[in-house]
Amino acid sequence: MTIDVFAADEQEEHPIAVARWSTLARNVLTARRVKGEVEVSLLFVDEDAIAALNQQFLGKSGPTDVLSFPIEDEPGPTGRSPDLGEAVPVSHPTKAR
């Protein structure tokens, strides 16, 4: 089993301990015995960014607290900045095998 967790703090007002959240996510998936190749992305964004993502992925206007997608489903459409060839945010990958 490979668990890849990528985290990025893309907002400025409330600094996030991304390494801590990456470790927590990896530990939860390991404890739940998630099998196979797993990739999790944690993006901490500001209110405008989460509202845009909420519209893009769920078709809902306005900000939300969390966007999550089922781990069992096939990947949906992308559209984050790295996918569009824009600057990639600073991330802190952690890996467990």
Summarize the structure.
This protein has 97 residues and is an alpha+beta fold. The chain is built from 2 helices and 3 strands, in the order E-H-E-H-E.
Protein described:
With 97 residues, the protein is an alpha+beta fold. It has two helices and three strands. A three-stranded mixed beta sheet has the order 2-1-3, covered by helices on one side. Helix 1 links the parallel strand 1 and strand 2. It is flat and about 35 Å long. The C terminus is likely disordered.
Q: What's the arrangement of secondary structure elements?
A:
Layout (H helix, E strand, L loop, with lengths): L1 E8 L8 H14 L5 E8 L2 H12 L35 E3 L1
Parallel strand pairs: 1-2
Antiparallel strand pairs: 1-3
What is the arithmetic mean of pLDDT? 80
Total number of helices? 2
Strand proportion, as a percent range, falls in: 15-25%
Span between termini: 6 Å
Radius of gyration: 14 Å
Q: Provide the spatial order of strands within the biggest beta sheet.
A: 2-1-3
- In total, the number of strands is 3
* Secondary-structure element series: EHEHE
Largest sheet: 3 strands, mixed
Structural class of the secondary structure composition?
alpha+beta
Assembly classification: single chain
Unreliable spans = 81-97
Helix fraction, binned, reads 25-40%
Q: Could you say which overall geometry the principal axes of the C-alpha atoms support?
A: flat
